[in-house]
Amino acid sequence: MSKIYFAPTHEYIVVDGNIGTVGISDYAQRALGNVVYVDMPEVDDEFNAGDDFGAIESVKAASDLFAPVSGTVIEVNDELADNPRLVNEDAMANWIIKLEISDLAELDNLMDAEAYEAHCAAEKH
Amino acid sequence: MEKEFKKTCLHDRHVKLGALMSPFGGFDMPIQYAGIVEEHQAVRTACGVFDVSHMGEVLVTGPDAEKFVNYIFTNDTTAGDSGKCFYGMMLHPDGGVVDDLLVYKRSATNYFLVINASNIDKDVEWIRSHAGGFDVEIEHLSDLMGELAIQGPEAENIVAEVLGLQCSELQFYTFKDTNYNGTAVILSRTGYTGEDGFEVYGPHAVIIDMWDKLIAAGVAPCGLGCRDTLRFEVGLPLYGDELADDITPLEAGLGIFVKLDKPEFIGREAIAMQKASGPARKLIGLELTDRAIPRHGYEVLNEKDEVVGHVTTGYHAISVDKSIAMALVDTAYAALGTGLKVKIRRKCFPCQVVSKKFYKKSYKK
């Protein structure tokens, strides 16, 4: 069964075995507004937890994307190259990359859905 | 300590409308309400209203008002009658831009200057420091006046019907002193969007009343986010991006607003010399083939990967659906069709020099 975690920088990772599906949260897509570009890494790129692996751009600004855990990119969502607005339509369904996670213990540093909700509420104030 | 930002007279309105607020030019300003794209489209296709009360206003009066304004300003205000607006710059002696501004000629002895929010303190000091020897009085009105911009193809009807201000007779870049419910206001056919539209200046109470009427009538409230995308698409400069203390009007492609046939104004000699030798840098348009977005400050490279300039403003433009930018580059790379590259994060993206009029203006002239 898969489980979802969130980073304080608003990426989510849905974990199934040692595969993590990474995107940005619904809260983040709302805060960004119209997404016009997603800068994605390439398959086989390796990242450490906290590395920026790409960027997501709204009309006004570019925001870096950070790897929630260490791992190797096994798939990128090519659909976002031509249609970045899918992120606004459904941020959960329209993930950005899939990672082969190198150290599952790093997931303990992330938040669960409840803790993330509290994190967002605190950020608003 | 957190910096305190100034608020316009409409600040509480923006907060109530749920605007995303952000600092700009020392003010806490609305960036967007419904969204930059929606607001941008409202102005291109119908009408939107902007709170631009952060802009600064300076009144220059007295027997030498015209002579003084013409001395600190690059355009020639003797070349038009009362009721005309002039766009131009104040220059440093070396030709760098102190600010770009709109000058309203009310008469030869009464000029109303509209300056950028981010430069208010610098400008007022600059203006005052050069007034010696001129018989003028300089009044700084920024804290007393608000300003609205009502922009878009339906602006004329909205200003006439919702605000009850007769405006159809105003030509592009002209204005009139008029009154709104008995209070004096200035109404001009000007703007910063590339669309037909009006700007109105008045005391805070009047600006608040107008704003409420416009919003109640269904006019789209528009933030500084789309103000920037709109002005960018039609190639209008923003001080801080395309203009700065170390960028000259010739480099920015604004030479037609610098009247070198005037006998004297600050910066004239430097510009005349630069015109004779040709500027070393030029502001150009760039078009990318990729969707990646060139942002302010990103490096522009030639085919040998040498840095030849930097991006001043860039967007994935809304009305033309392309990634485009304005960039200041070495003149050798400024010719239309020149192939260049922009460095966006880790990667370089190919691009081509194009006209910086990315989208056609539709002014009513």
What is the gist of this entry?
The complex is a heterodimer of chains A (125) and B (365). Chain A has 125 residues and is an alpha+beta fold. In chain A, 22% of the residues lie in helices and 37% in strands.
Topology:
The complex is a heterodimer of chains A (125) and B (365).
Chain A: E1 3-6, E2 11-16, E3 19-24, H1 26-32, E4 35-39, E5 46-47, E6 52-58, E7 62-66, E8 71-76, H2 79-82, H3 86-89, E9 97-101, H4 113-124
Antiparallel strand pairs in A: 1-2, 2-3, 3-9, 4-6, 5-8, 6-7, 8-9
Chain B: H1 11-16, E1 20-24, E2 27-32, H2 36-45, E3 48-51, E4 56-61, H3 65-72, E5 84-91, E6 97-107, E7 110-115, H4 120-129, E8 137-140, E9 145-151, H5 155-161, E10 175-180, E11 183-188, E12 197-203, H6 204-216, E13 220-222, H7 224-233, H8 268-277, E14 281-288, E15 299-301, E16 307-316, E17 323-330, E18 339-344, E19 347-354
Parallel strand pairs in B: 3-13
Antiparallel strand pairs in B: 1-2, 3-9, 4-7, 4-8, 5-6, 6-7, 9-12, 10-11, 11-12, 14-17, 14-19, 15-16, 15-18, 16-17, 18-19
Helix pairs in contact in B: 2-7
